[in-house]
């Protein structure tokens, strides 16, 4: 029997990576465009769910414009907080699994060590507040769920830090990059493979572990360290290179505040599902190669 797995955010980095994967023949991945399923419209979400046979949900869609969210609070709230609640309500009523992708920005960044799943949240931006509210809405519905917190997602598609750095290096010899924010760079392709594994597991086993999990590539970095490493790799491929000048967050003001420390621990994911992502340095090399190949 074919099972329909709904994927939101199909045009994003993670959604694109999930659709590139080879899925089992008995799983049909439904990735409707925004015209068919708009997370900003309650009636659109409810209508799509009621008009389709859905056996599982991967909610990879989100309002991710962190700075713009400071001015567009209502939109961020509807997409990041209310829509996940609607999916969780439907999942609880129909007894299907829900995988929801969340973010490191639910944390304040005040902790000196990396965060685990049991640490207290304390978002410092509208984006973070809306994503944390989405998590709470899902838990409140009592559905079978996995909340997957990830961070600093990178890929050869869409908009991300890696692609921006390579583009800027085409015209600039020096880039001033923040060096006092620490996080967990993550390959969208690596993240997608884990989510696929978890989705297949939950579709076939109703007793599979539920709850909140962190999923990022191994190792940590600052934005400046990430930039320096990607330029080293780019140089090896004959791609653009720039010198990185480390600066402080105060020297690069933004509309939204960022957590100074958003490093995530993945011990729980390894314990419950045996999933561990490779080091981020190894993960970004094929992404850089792919980006350079596309522009050559």
The secondary-structure element order is EHEHEHEHEEHEEEHEEEHEHEH
CATH architecture of the domain at 3-158 and 185-219 and 263-278: 3-Layer(aba) Sandwich
In the CATH scheme, the class of the domain at 3-158 and 185-219 and 263-278 would be Alpha Beta
- CATH superfamily grouping of the domain at 3-158 and 185-219 and 263-278: NAD(P)-binding Rossmann-like Domain
What is the gyration radius calculated from CA atoms?
A: 19 Å
Low-confidence stretches: none
Features:
296 residues, alpha/beta, 9 helices
What do these coordinates show?
With 296 residues, this protein is α/β, with parallel strands linked by helices. The chain has a domain of 207 residues: NAD(P)-binding Rossmann-like Domain (Rossmann fold, 3-Layer(aba) Sandwich), CATH 3.40.50. It has 9 helices and 14 strands. It has a 6-stranded parallel beta sheet with strand order 2-1-3-4-5-10, with helices on both faces. α1 crosses α6. 45% of the residues are buried.
Short summary:
By secondary structure, the protein is an alpha/beta fold.
Please render the helix and strand layout as text.
Layout: E1 3-8, H1 13-20, E2 27-30, H2 42-51, E3 56-59, H3 73-94, E4 98-103, H4 126-141, E5 145-150, E6 153-154, H5 161-169, E7 174-178, E8 182-183, E9 186-187, H6 188-204, E10 211-214, E11 217-218, E12 221-222, H7 223-236, E13 243-247, H8 267-273, E14 277-279, H9 280-295
Parallel strand pairs: 1-2, 1-3, 3-4, 4-5, 5-10, 6-9, 7-13, 11-14
Antiparallel strand pairs: 8-12
Helix pairs in contact: 1-6, 2-3, 3-4, 5-7, 7-9
């Amino acid at each position: 029997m074919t099972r329909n797995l709904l994927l939101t955010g199909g045009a994003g980095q993670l959604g694109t990576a999930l659709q590139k994967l080879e899925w089992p023949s008995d799983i049909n991945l439904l990735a409707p465009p925004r015209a068919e399923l708009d997370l900003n419209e309650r009636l659109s979400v409810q209508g799509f769910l009621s008009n389709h046979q859905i056996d599982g949900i991967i909610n990879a869609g989100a309002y991710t414009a962190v700075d713009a969210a400071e001015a567009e609070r209502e939109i961020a709230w509807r997409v990041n907080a209310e829509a996940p609640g609607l999916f969780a309500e439907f999942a609880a009523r129909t007894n299907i699994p829900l995988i929801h992708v969340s973010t490191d920005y639910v944390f304040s960044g005040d902790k000196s060590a990396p965060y685990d799943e049991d640490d207290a949240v304390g978002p410092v931006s509208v984006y973070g507040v809306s994503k944390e509210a989405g998590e709470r809405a899902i838990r409140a519905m009592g559905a079978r769920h996995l909340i997957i917190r990830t961070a600093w997602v990178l890929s050869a598609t869409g908009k991300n830090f890696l692609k921006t750095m390579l583009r800027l290096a085409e015209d600039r010899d020096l880039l001033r990059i923040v060096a006092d924010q620490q996080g967990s760079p993550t390959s969208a392709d690596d993240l997608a493979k884990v989510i696929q594994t978890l989705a297949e597991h939950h579709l076939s086993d109703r007793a599979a572990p539920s709850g909140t999990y962190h999923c990022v590539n191994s190792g940590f970095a600052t934005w400046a360290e990430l930039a320096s490493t990607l330029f080293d790799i780019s140089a090896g491929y004959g791609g653009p290179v720039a010198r990185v000048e480390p600066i402080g967050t105060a020297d690069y003001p933004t509309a939204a505040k960022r957590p100074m420390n958003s490093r995530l621990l993945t011990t729980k994911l390894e314990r419950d599902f045996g999933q561990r992502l490779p080091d981020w340095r190894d993960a970004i090399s094929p992404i850089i190669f792919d980006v350079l190949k596309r522009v050559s």
